[in-house]
Amino acid sequence: MERRTFITTALAGTACLALGVNYCSSDYVSVNKELDDKHRLLFSVLVPVFLDGALPDVATLKRDAINRTLDSIEHTISILPQESQAELEQLLEMLEGRLGLLILTGSMTPLMLRNQPELIEMLQSWRTSYMDMMVTAYQGLRELVLASYYSSPDHWSRLHYAKPTFLEDMNS
Fold first, then answer.
1. CA-CA distance, 159 to 3, in Å (whole number)?
2. Structural domain boundaries of the chain?
3. Which residues contact 159 (CB under 8 A, 6 or more apart)?
4. Contacts of 170 (CB under 8 A, 6+ apart)
5. pLDDT of residue 9
6. What are the CA-CA distances from residue 26 to residues 22, 83, 98, 126 (Å)?
7. 3-state DSSP assignment of residue 171
8. Which value, to the nearest 10 degrees, does the dihedral of the CA atoms of residues 124, 103, 136, 55 take?
9. Which of 39, 91, 45, 47 is nearest to 65 (CA)?
C-alpha cells in the first residue's frame, strides 16, 4: 500500500467515524431544544469562565449573579440586529453539537463536561487564533457575557462605580 493511499484512507475513516459518532451515538449531555431554546445551559458553563474573579465568592450570591447574567444575555440577544442574532445562533448551535465542537475545538466532549482549565485553554486558543473567525467568536462571546454582567447595577460595586447623580436627582 502506498503512503498516500494509507493517509487518505486513514483521514476518510476518521471523518466517517466522527460523523457516525456525531449522528448515531447517545449524547453524554442531551440538551432539550424546547426547554433550552435560549442556550442557558451553554452560557451557564461559559459565564463563570469569562467572569472568573468578578463573581462573588459566596455560592448563593454567585448563583444569583450568574442567573441575572443569563437573563441579561437573553435580553441582549433579543435586541441584537437580526444578522448578528443569526450569526450568534449559528455559533451556539455548533457549540452544542458534537460535529460543531469537533470543528471549533478539536474535541467532541461537550462543553458541559469540561472542567474550567479546559474551557480556559479552549477560549485562549480562540483568542490567539490565526483565524479571524475564531477571534471574532471569542470576542463576541466575551463581550456579550461581560456587557450582560456589568449591565446590572448590582455588579457595579465590584468596580467601585456608582451611578452618577445629576442636579435633577439632587433636587428630588
1. 59
2. 29-159
3. 150
4. none
5. 64
6. 9, 33, 11, 28
7. helix
8. -50
9. 47
- DSSP letters for 5-67: HHHHHHHHHHHHHHHHHHHHSPPSS---TTT-TT-HHHHHHHHHHHTTTTS-SSHHHHHHHHH
For the entire predicted model, the pTM comes to: 0.72
Distance of CA 119 to the CA centre of its chain: 10
The residue type of 130 is Y
pLDDT at 29: 46
pLDDT tens, position by position, for the chain (172 residues)? 666 665 666 566 565 555 555 454 444 444 445 445 678 999 999 999 999 888 888 999 889 999 999 999 999 999 999 999 999 999 999 998 888 888 888 888 898 899 999 999 999 999 999 999 999 999 999 999 999 988 888 777 777 777 777 766 555 5
Q: What is the DSSP letter of 163?
A: -
Query: What length is written for the chain?
Result: 172
